[in-house]
């Protein structure tokens, strides 16, 4: 691959800059392909069957995973070239090193393989998004297969492990109040895993989850019923007019986890949160950590990915509803503005050590 860029009228051509970008581009192609390999291995179970660190042949691995050997062999070839696995060419065996095992399986603190699914998932709607570039509008939730499944896996690593010990104590009175019994509402609840954990831990409290997706609500309701959580209910609901339809002073705690920025009318939702909170209520909001200005995100460790996800999903699903299209990277400045407009007088923002991607807001009337 050779750089063919030509100097513009106003700029001198920097050959070294072109060469550096060419190198970066080729590397990105390979690293992106590695993410596809990881996504396939995560979903097929290959990574789990390699987690014991023992060397295996392609036939042995295929048998363990109950997969087609030819595809497993080709995957191992790609994984060898990507330095995901170690290969012994004499024995024709492959091994996932422990340093990779702890990062790519459930054996470590976080399974990074979960996040490898986002790019293949977003690629499924590239034609739809391209049409939006040309004609405007957005892509509806129904076009995103597996979206709630992947989001549940994501929140299962960022929210669930620290929900009780780190997120709730951001409002110090909450654990005791939940133990005594309060009314809790989670908006944009998805598959409702956070609510299930809370409902199980605090049986004296009452929990409600709203989400636009029927698929997510049906999954959540079925799972909650299997768990016998009688203090938890789910409802399919469009929150675009929540500023008017929210029951006044109904809830003691309202939560949103990564749910504000892709709403059709986020300010309406926030005004509804303020309306439905009781006088001593608390609103806990997890949302993306970013600036509200492009130049402020240049050093964001996940900035490029998050802007891409905004285009391919978060902004687009909002616009598909005739909404604002706020976008993933709405940022702290815009968030403070919207929280203020919604009527919150006490606004705090926190970051948790395990989570470089999100801010955690504590808001009170």
UniProtKB/TrEMBL annotation:
UniProt xrefs under Gene3D superfamilies: Vaccinia Virus protein VP39, Winged helix-like DNA-binding domain superfamily/Winged helix DNA-binding domain
InterPro entries reported in the protein's UniProt record: Methyltranfer_dom, SAM-binding_MTase, SAM-dependent_MTases_sf, WH-like_DNA-bd_sf, WH_DNA-bd_sf, WHD_Rv2258c
Residues in S-adenosylmethionine-dependent methyltransferase Rv2258c-like winged HTH domain copies: 36-105
GO MF terms, alphabetically ordered: erythromycin 3''-o-methyltransferase activity
Gene Ontology terms describing biological process: methylation
Record EC number: 2.1.1.254
Residue ranges of every copy of the Methyltransferase domain listed in the record: 180-289
Alphabetically ordered keywords of this record: Methyltransferase, Transferase
Pfam families: Methyltransf_31, WHD_Rv2258c
PANTHER family per UniProt: METHYLTRANSFERASE TYPE 11, S-ADENOSYLMETHIONINE-DEPENDENT METHYLTRANSFERASE RV2258C
Name of the protein: Erythromycin 3''-O-methyltransferase
Lineage start: Bacteria, Pseudomonadati, Pseudomonadota, Gammaproteobacteria, Oceanospirillales
Encoding gene, per UniProt annotation: eryG
């Amino acid at each position: 691959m050779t750089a063919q860029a030509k100097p513009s009228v106003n700029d001198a051509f920097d050959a070294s800059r072109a060469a550096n970008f060419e190198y970066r581009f080729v590397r990105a192609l390979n690293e992106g392909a590695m993410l596809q390999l990881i996504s396939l291995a995560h979903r097929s179970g290959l990574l789990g069957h390699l987690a014991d660190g023992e060397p295996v042949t392609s036939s042995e691995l295929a048998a363990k995973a109950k997969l087609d050997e030819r595809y497993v062999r080709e995957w191992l070839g790609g994984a060898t070239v990507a330095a995901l696995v170690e290969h012994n060419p004499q024995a024709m065996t492959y091994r996932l090193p422990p340093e990779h095992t702890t990062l790519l399986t459930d054996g470590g603190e976080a399974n990074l393989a979960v996040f490898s699914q986002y790019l293949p998932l977003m690629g499924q709607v590239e034609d739809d998004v391209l049409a939006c570039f040309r004609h405007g509008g957005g892509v509806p939730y129904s076009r995103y297969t597996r979206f709630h499944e992947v989001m549940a896996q994501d929140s299962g690593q960022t929210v669930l492990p620290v929900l009780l010990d780190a997120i709730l104590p951001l409002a110090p009175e909450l654990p005791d109040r939940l133990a005594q019994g309060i009314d809790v509402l989670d908006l944009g609840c998805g598959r409702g895993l956070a609510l299930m954990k809370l409902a199980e831990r605090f049986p004296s409290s009452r929990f409600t989850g709203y989400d636009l997706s029927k698929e997510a609500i049906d999954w959540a309701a079925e799972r909650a019923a299997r768990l016998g959580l009688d203090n938890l209910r789910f409802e399919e609901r469009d929150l675009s007019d929540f500023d008017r339809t929210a029951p006044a002073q109904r809830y003691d705690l309202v939560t949103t986890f990564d749910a504000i920025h892709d709403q059709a009318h986020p300010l309406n939702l926030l005004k509804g949160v303020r309306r439905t909170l009781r006088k001593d209520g608390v609103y806990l909001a997890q949302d993306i950590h970013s600036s509200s200005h492009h130049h402020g995100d240049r050093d964001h460790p996940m900035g490029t990915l998050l802007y891409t996800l905004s285009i391919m999903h978060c902004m687009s699903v909002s616009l598909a509803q005739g909404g604002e299209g706020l976008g993933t990277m709405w940022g702290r400045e815009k968030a403070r503005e919207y929280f203020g407009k919604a009527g919150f007088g006490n606004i705090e923002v926190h970051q948790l050590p395990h989570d470089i991607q999100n801010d955690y807001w504590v808001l009170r009337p």
